[in-house]
Predict the 3D structure of the following.
Amino acid sequence: MIMIPAAGGTMQPAVGLIANPASGKDIRRLIAHGSVFDNNEKANIIRRVLQALDAFGVKQVLAMPDLYGLVLRALEDTQVGLRVEFVNISVTNTAADSRLAAAVMAQAGVRCIVTVGGDGTNRVVAQGCGDVPLVPISTGTNNVFPSLVESTLAGMAAAAVACDVEPVWDRAVRQARRLEIVRGNTLVETALVDVVVYDERFVATRAIWDADKMRALFLTAPYRGTIGASAIAAYLPQAEEVARDAAGLYVELGPGGTHVMAPIAPGLIVPVSVRVVHPLELEQTIPVTYAPSILALDGEREVPVPPGTSVGVRLSSHGPYVVDVQAALQAAVKAGFFIRKP
């Protein structure tokens, strides 16, 4: 088992903790009706994670520092025996913090990383965590990748992974797919859920909400019961038929197609014109033919596509490892992990 040396020279299981103070606060609170997770609630979520880790034998936590002091707030009036340390990074209050913190944690040897955020948070964490599995707790706007799970249970699952309880890894850890933005053979960016080709020239406000500007959609899987761009295919019968034999989906949008009512943001249900749904196979690259445009990754505008630029989207099996909380708890129960002698 990978461990971090403790101060006394012994080896202890360690868990990483990355909480995004900006998640759940974008413009979709104004144009839609997304839930707001304020920093006090995020501190409460972190507090319950720490208490669960402490209860089941995790002695060390490596946390990402942030300008709002979320973890420090969580530690106030919280009696835990574990040691919490912050990774040594320069805080920029941007996505780079999460990416770098994940890389430092992976190098330090944490057994898993608990994330507190939405699809965007987990996207950048996945770019730095390597093979360290994620335990994602949802506090974002679009929450397809992270689970809507009580943080106490997420902490218990993370403890089971960190303590190397057999057979938690085999039964509860899976490798997710990802979408790769490529220019030639160069990897530019990645997404975990969806890539939207958006009819804009500039990144500007990162969130997307105007369905009339969506020109194409790439999906890592045919998601159901979701909010965001992934919902466009989720409620379309023809997409379900194509998805039966496909790893992912490529959807052409625009005038003249089938209109599906889709919840593209919380409380924002609009008609979207879907022209064609194509299967997307693993390692298949499809060129982005609409330019100029912006590629929105997991709900946030990130990559400009100027005219004359050759950009493609590839479906890959090399996404992050993810812990299924319920499966981890079930496996830990069978292993007797939660039994303690009086």
Q: What stands out?
A: The domain at 4-176+320-334 is CATH 3.40.50.10330 (Rossmann fold). The longest helix spans residues 39-55. The chain has two domains: 4-176+320-334, 178-316.
